[in-house]
């Protein structure tokens, strides 16, 4: 599958530097992914190595509670697995380079929520760890056309203040609508790294939609 929203592009102030080790987790160490009950959704958590050297990172699964009806697969930066892998190591990541976790969820018609957690550490310092949390929310009534495609994603998600919308062609109208279809905000993209202030929105789920090179894009996000 192509790389999707949920590449996150980095903008100042919305990525989080890990306190335990010199790793930058785009959007923070906890990510929430909202999807419909049909189709498959690729869910990404991107990180960058700021150790000042090339490094290998180990991940160990410490929690998963997704329903048995779901199909859940997993990829690191070299291997893909049919299920959530319990333990493995990323291929060596150069200093300042990025890599990603990718978890693909196929709910098979089962609406539910689930949490997956991995502890994450540099191979040479196993006593210095971060915990990465993936929260999956599968809803009824959201068709595949409402889902984030494998090419685009908004972040941070959930969001409190400023939402980053990638790949909106300059001059494009970008709309935010509620789950009931009401328009709540409209802006014109100034460049390909469009930011939308959403602090004035009430908490809840919204869609951001726009046309990109003639292709309609509709992405879902959660306002805290």
Structure explained in plain terms:
With 224 residues, the protein is mostly beta strands. It has 2 domains: 15-139, Immunoglobulin-like (Sandwich), CATH 2.60.40; 159-223, Immunoglobulin-like, CATH 2.60.40. Helix content is 0%, strand content 49%. The protein has no helices and 17 strands. The chain has strands at residues 15-17, 23-26, 30-36, 41-49, 57-64, 71-75, 80-81, 87-89, 98-106, 113-122, 130-139, 162-166, 173-178, 183-188, 193-197, 204-212, 215-223. A 6-stranded antiparallel β-sheet has the order 1-2-4-9-6-7, with no helix packed on it. It has a 5-stranded mixed β-sheet with strand order 3-11-10-5-8, with no helix packed on it.
Protein traits:
Immunoglobulin-like, mainly beta, disordered N terminus, 224 residues, five-stranded mixed β-sheet, 2 domains, 49% strand
**Pairing-aware structural class of the strands and helices?**
mainly beta
Under CATH, the homologous superfamily of the largest domain reads: Immunoglobulins
Count of helix runs: 0
Count of domains: 2
Provide the gyration radius in Å.
Answer: 17 Å
- The CATH class of the largest domain, by name, is Mainly Beta
Question: Beta fraction of the residues?
Answer: over 45%
CATH topology of the largest domain: Immunoglobulin-like
Helix and strand sequence:
EEEEEEEEEEEEEEEEE
The count of β-strands is 17
In spatial order, strands of the major sheet run 1-2-4-9-6-7
* Major sheet attributes: 6 strands, antiparallel
**What level of helicity do the residues show?**
under 10%
First-last Cα distance: 30 Å
How would you sum up the global shape? globular
């Amino acid at each position: 599958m192509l790389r999707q929203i949920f590449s996150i592009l980095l903008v100042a102030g919305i990525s989080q530097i890990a306190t335990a080790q010199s790793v930058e987790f785009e959007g923070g160490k906890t990510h929430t992914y909202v999807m419909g009950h049909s189709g498959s959704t690729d869910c990404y958590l991107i990180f960058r190595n700021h150790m000042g050297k090339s490094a290998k990172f180990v991940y160990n699964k410490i929690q998963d509670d997704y329903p048995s009806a779901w199909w859940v697969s997993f990829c690191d930066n070299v291997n893909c697995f049919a299920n959530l892998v319990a333990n493995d190591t990323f291929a060596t990541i150069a200093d300042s380079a990025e890599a990603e976790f990718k978890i693909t969820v196929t709910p098979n018609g089962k609406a539910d929520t689930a949490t997956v957690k991995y502890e994450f550490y540099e191979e040479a310092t196993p006593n210095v760890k971060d915990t990465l949390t993936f929260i999956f929310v599968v809803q009824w009534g959201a068709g595949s056309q409402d889902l984030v495609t494998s090419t685009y994603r908004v972040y941070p998600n959930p969001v409190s203040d400023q939402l980053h919308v990638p790949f909106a062609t300059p001059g494009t109208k970008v709309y935010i609508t509620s789950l009931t279809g009401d328009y709540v905000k409209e802006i014109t993209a100034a460049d390909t790294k469009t930011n939308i202030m959403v602090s004035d929105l009430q908490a809840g789920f919204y869609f951001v939609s726009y046309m990109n090179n003639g292709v309609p894009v509709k992405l879902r996000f959660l306002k805290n």
